[in-house]
Amino acid sequence: MEPVMTVNLSRLIQTMKESAKIGAIPGGGLRRLSLSVEDKAMRDLLREWMIDAGLQVRLDDFGNMYGRREGRNKDASVVMVGSHLDTQPEGGIYDGILGVLSALEVIRVLNENDIETERSIEIVNFTNEEGARFEPPMLGSGGVAGIFSENYVRERKDQEGKLYGEELENIGYAGTPENRAQNIYRFLELHIEQGPILEEQKISVGAVEGVQGMNWLEVIVSGDPGHAGTVPLNHRKDALMSAAKMALAIQHIAKETDEFAKVTIGRMQLKPGSTNCIPHEVVFSIDIRHPNDDIRERVVELVRERISTIALLDGIDIQIKDLWEIKSTLFSEDIVQLVQQGAKEHGYTCRVMMSGAGHDAKYIHHIAPSGMVFVPSVNGKSHCKEELTHWEDVEKGANVLLYVVQNLANKEDSDLYEC
Ligand code: HGY
Ligand code: MN
Ligand code: MN
After folding, report:
1. pLDDT tens-digit profile of 334-391?
2. What is the DSSP letter of 163?
3. Phi then psi dihedrals of residue 154, to 5 deg
4. Residues linked to residue 284 through DSSP beta bridges, in sequence order
5. For residue 127, what are the contacts with CB-CB under 8 A and spacing of at least 6?
């Protein structure tokens, strides 16, 4: 086993700060929606960095970007490392980005120390992990994992009706199906925790054992249009007022079902959206999550029942669409152990934990044993410009990533994963 190596923190910070300029918004956050001009600019920069690092760059038909560093055994299955560069509308500078740029730093360290590995290493940027522009999330990794077909992904529309496939072509990042990730030995993703646990418990590294299950639904509530000044309240079929009752009922269901149930109404649009018009249509999203699939499914069932009853009592129409569902996933035990071993070798505190957030590793785990390394989020904040992870914690996470990648990249084929 090679000596316990470390990353070049100042170079990693520099790279992260460089990326944080692309799509920067006032207050220190990022708006870099997938397949936007900002995403293109970041992809262009990543491609430049990959080429500078001597990587063979390729693109698949979902727009996923790969940079390959050949190993001694060109036929052996590869170690893939990475995450995503797209952000939320008011995202932070670490979510996903840290995983891609730490993977690049791992390559840079191996290069400058002339370390050749048995296996090839591929770093990856997965398209549209967030699902902020094109729903559902994780379309790039889900496409590679065979969850979503190329047509399904290409036909996804954003809120302005623009198509994923066309937007991908417009930014010049449409690749080919034969370039999709394949023959993966292991996949690894470094990511910020996006929650409060590591910080509260003063632990430096999370060895992620899995990702909780989640559902995305869309609800369309249809009432009657009318004038704000003339229609008596008891004659109204006000879509917004019914939607408001539904929102409170949804939160109540989660609270009464289980302490770990999480529900979020993240977007709500109403029509016609004028101060003096009674809203006749409200469309809103529901994000439901729980580590236990039975409980999560129970919450979904209760939500559907309760909001349908509210619609009935209010005499309005309701349509409930199932947008997306992932079941709770457990990662590979060998990677969880390797992450813990890496933390131990470096003398870092470490704990095993589930992820509350969804990640590309969840879908890649369908086609290759996958795992994740977490680093603490200050105040547990993420998906906002207040997202912050201290550089000394970034360094620890990246050092553990380097350790695990080096270890995996020199492992024999004997323990190849049977899909
Ligand atoms: O939604 C999620 O959990 C992830 O951050 N995209
Ligand atoms: Mn992420
Ligand atoms: Mn995210």
Report:
1. 999 999 999 999 999 999 999 999 999 999 999 999 999 999 999 999 999 999 999 9
2. B
3. -60, -30
4. 219, 268
5. 34, 35, 62, 63, 64, 84, 86, 139, 140, 168, 173
Per-residue pLDDT of 239-276, as tens digits, reads 999 999 999 999 999 999 999 999 999 999 999 999 99
In order of 181, 257, 399, the CA distances from 368 in angstroms are 10, 34, 23
Q: Which atom of ligand 1 is nearest to the CA of 95?
A: 5
Closest ligand 1 atom number to CA of residue 138: 6
**pLDDT tens across 168-180, in order?**
999 999 999 999 9
357 close to ligand 1 (CB < 6 Angstrom): yes
Rounded-to-integer distance, Cα 304 and Cα 169, Å: 38
Indicate the Cα dihedral angle 382, 387, 392, 397, nearest 10°. 30
Confidence of residue 419 (pLDDT cuts 50, 70, 90): very low
Residue to mutate, 94, 130, 328, ligand 1, most ligand atoms under 8 Å from C-beta: 130
3-state class (DSSP) for residue 325: strand
Could you tell me if 376 and 204 are in contact, meaning their C-beta atoms sit under 8 angstroms apart? yes
Closest residue to atom 6 of ligand 1, CA basis: 130
Nearest to 263 by CA among 220, 298, 234: 298
Q: What is the pLDDT of residue 418?
A: 38
pTM (global) more than 0.90: yes
**Which helix (H) or strand (E) covers residue 213, if one does?**
strand 213-222
Tokens of 165: 């496939």
Question: Residue holding tokens 């090679």?
Answer: 2
Q: Atom 3 (ligand 1): residue with closest C-alpha?
A: 357
Q: 242 and 280 in contact (C-beta within 8 Å)? A: no
Query: Structure tokens of 272?
Result: 């016609």
Proportion of the chain above pLDDT 90, given as a percent: 97
User: How many Cα atoms sit within 13 Å of 104 on the Cβ side?
Assistant: 32
Residue 306 has pLDDT above 70, yes or no: yes
Spell out where 45-198 has E strands: 56-59, 65-69, 78-84, 121-126, 184-192
Structure tokens at 75: 């036929």
